[in-house]
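G., the chain you wanted modeled:
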Amino acid sequence: IIDALKKEGTDTLFAFPGGVVIPIFNALYSEKELKVVLNRHEQAAVHAADGYARSSGKVGVALVTSGPGATNTITGIATAKLDSIPIVVISGQVKRDFVGTDGFQEVDMSGLTRPISKHNYLVSDIADLPRIMKEAFYIARTGRPGPVSIDIPVDILNSTLKSYAYPKEVKLPGYKPTVQGNPKQIKKLAQTIQHAEKPLFYTGGGIVASGAHKELLDIIEKTNIPFVTTLMGLGSVDADHPLFLGMPGMHGRYAANHAMMQCDLLIAVGARFDDRVTGDISRFAPSATIAHIDVDPAEIGKNIKTEIPVVGDAKYVLSELNELLKPRKMNGWCDTVRSWKEEHPLKVIQEENGETAPQYVIERLNELAGDDAVIVTDVGQHQMFTALYYRHRHPRNFLSSGGLGTMGFGLPAAMGAALARPGSQVIAICGDGGFQMNIQELTTCALNGIPVKAVILNNQYLGMVRQWQELFWDKRYSSVCLKQRPDCPPDFQGPDSK
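Predicted structure as tokens:
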């Protein structure tokens, strides 16, 4: 297992031991090349592996024990699945003879992870283990990335292979991700773009995952087509670009939403038409021809009817598309969307000697942190403030739980990012609610010297839930107040050392 991890490029392992995985930890005891980070909770270990993967583009790895150790990874695996993040989660299992008998700390990890992972394995023969390790990493990182679960019975961990050779290649006849898009469909899309009067790019996390940011920028500047970017795609193109209209959706910007509703051609690239973007799908982009480029064919047409589907890797498809496109000049459509952006800017109102506005905090952080800082958020109002008010400039520098909206993600994910990107400034922006969900990982950071800065926007409420109660539930603020807590300083710091 350790040899496989090293051959797959793993240098950091986020882990929590238990009885059945002691054989692996025993081997790790004398291992010099792999850094083992002992997290304080298995959910945090998976979030840390997730943050490592998001910030580096490599596969993150977590190692846990059986039973509750395995079940504690479920939220982390589901978080990675919905955001298409490549991680491998290795868990221990009871002896093969005990599987199905409700043995001590037995859970059906294969059954639990089937709907929330890209693929999973229950190792039934030690001879299969090298192949399974090779396949798991290949599946996690290729096509549409995602989490893979490997469940290993303890009797296999205590066994010895008669001969060992790590596979050099993967043979999976049923798994062939499409990289090169259909040339006819790409040509059709190019022709449609040339004839469109009000085209708009709608880009998502697939741009980041495929490393297609340069190809996207080349097309945008060649064609002068405005673009909007989802939460997961922020940073794929510099937010200061004049054709960038912001993030669309219920928490998005005026210009972005109006452009999506009035465009005559909407070109989605690596985005999945999430309900937080579309709202009522029967009224979404009513005048637009929909084109959709995505490596996952299951996403095309899933939520929105698509007239021009292109299955393929965004980096390859955009490169091929650019070869067919002719330059376009700025037109009236560009002037219109720019006027929306100018007339409805994001505003920060910070009254002198008043309470600190959270938007002001984000803007000041943006000024102080530097262009290459890695910004990680938890989930809630602070997440949307960061998405909107921070000027995201580079891919893989903004990490956030988008699809699952996982509170408690921020601190451990920032920890993983800091280990993946040594030397980079890593800042976790959290709310007071989410920060407390994995607050124990402050210990992990302290003991391992992981330089994460945590900025807590403390409004003493579960702010986003309270906001919905205010807007839609007659201000009935049920179970959202966090003011009541044990006697401690309100700034989450320890007692004054003086």
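Confidence is low (pLDDT under 50) at residues 494-498.

Shout if anything looks off.
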